[in-house]
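Researcher: Please translate sequence to structure tokens.
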Amino acid sequence: MIEMPPLQFAKLNGIRMGYYDAGPMSDAPPVVLCHGWPEMAFSWRHQIKALAAAGIRVIAPDQRGYGATSRPDAVEDYSIEHLTGDLVALLDHLKIDKAIFVGHDWGGFIVWQMPLRHRDRVAGVVGVNTPHTDRAPVDPLQIYKKRFGETMYIVQFQDPAHEPDRIFGENVDKAFDFFMRKPMPRKHANVGEAPVGGIGASSKTNLAFPQMVAAYDPGKDPRQKILSDEEKKIFVDAFKESGFTGGINWYRNMSANWARAEGLDHTVRVPSLMIMAENDAVLPPSSADGMENIIPDLEKYLVKDSGHWTQQEKPDEVSQVLIDWRRRRFG
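Model: Translation complete:
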């Protein structure tokens, strides 16, 4: 039986957002959990339960374009300003002054942006797998193209005809079978084991995810599943309803986000924690090297024997790290 708090809704920042809110309302600062792609607040089910049981208030939204939250049509409505603005508006709705923002995958990129853009609303930041970096010297899409070629999924996601969206939408069940597995041990790793995130991967890694999902045969995949059948059904049903375009539109703003970030001070001036996963092929622990240079108050923690879906692969360990750090730094 999967336990989740009741889903609540708020009208904010031009959308209707679905979110979960658990733990004592009096606890401050609360922890806001931000998911990545292709996920939703349900990805944090283990942490919601554990943090609430530890007496910590925890809030987990389905972010713009996902799950129970609105999916605007315009690509521009998924800019970094909108995505960080949604989190500020959620705090306003809940009458919360400051929060600790925890983000995995794309959610990690969003939470590292929060203290750069909304410093007065951020008590602390935790990145799960996703490092914080200074602004790239050139458009990130040019880096992806040069390093991985035109078939790399983020490059493909720029397709105005939405072909990747269609492929995933026609193969939802296969997509979650493909993505939500533990990586093979390193000596056996090959195509199909790379997860979804930033630019830490080797240029040999096959990142043509739409085509890989279309051709995928779950029966021939030796990797261990992360999700139970019941858990997978929740993801599959949600994405059959929502489609993938909302989440992919986050990627379609990467060049515009990069252009508008010129001149933005990328130093993070709040207590921060970087949780790294030993076997994440796209966001390896080495991608977090040098974060200390732009985050003066940074701790790091390595989760061993975990691939990309760290909070679901190693839920108890991730939950305990969050609880310990939160208590140590914020009482």
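Researcher: Any highlights?
Model: The first helix runs from residue 45 to 53.
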